[in-house]
Amino acid sequence: MTRPKTQSDEKVLETAYRLMHADGPEALTFERLARASGLSGSTLVQRFKNKALLRQRTLLYAWDGLDRKTEEVASSVPRTPAGAVELLVALSSGYGDIESYAEGLLVLREDLRDPILRVRGAAWKAALGRMLADCFAGVRGIPDDIGLLMATHWQGSLLWWSFDPDDMDLTAYVEHSLKRFLSATTTLARNP
């Protein structure tokens, strides 16, 4: 008879993600996770097999959370261009300060290295693009791929902010940048 789990896999993966995000992907070891979770290293190895699988499962858990957050925020904003800005600003709120953002880029590197995680990233990109495009339904003269264009601009604004983070709060910077994108896009749509 197997012993009941004292902590769900989700709780352990949440702890693993916090370790990975705080100290970089290389910091996620069975030993450190055992100390942080209170479970034995052998229990963790039994559940997750090896470090590569632990890292992958941790990042799939993070993608699940991002999918849920994106759906939740998208369902709460108006289906308007301003709602698209609101959606992306809300998604920007979890990045934190420049140190946290930089650590997040190291985590993203792991997503790019793993084919399964790249598929998850591509699926999120497509879903986010559709959600953003829905906010432009009925706006004449807007390109069909406006959602992807706006998401691309958003990701660029996050990166550009990171080079000069002391000038403006991240969410304020993103909001300002996206409103300028929106203004330029709608102006071009009216005056082709």
Would you kindly provide a written description of the structure presented here, covering whatever features stand out?
The protein has 192 residues and is mainly alpha-helical. The protein has one domain: Tetracycline Repressor, domain 2, CATH 1.10.357.10. 75% of the residues lie in helices and 0% in strands. Helix 1 (9-23) packs across helix 6 (98-113), helix 4 packs antiparallel against helix 5 (81-92) and helix 6 crosses helix 7 (115-134). It is elongated. The termini are far apart.
Features of this protein?
Tetracycline Repressor, domain 2, mainly alpha, 192 residues
Sum this structure up briefly.
The chain has helices at 9-23, 30-37, 41-48, 51-76, 81-92, 98-113, 115-134, 146-163, 170-190. With 192 residues, it is mainly α. The protein starts with 8 loop residues before the first helix and ends with a helix.
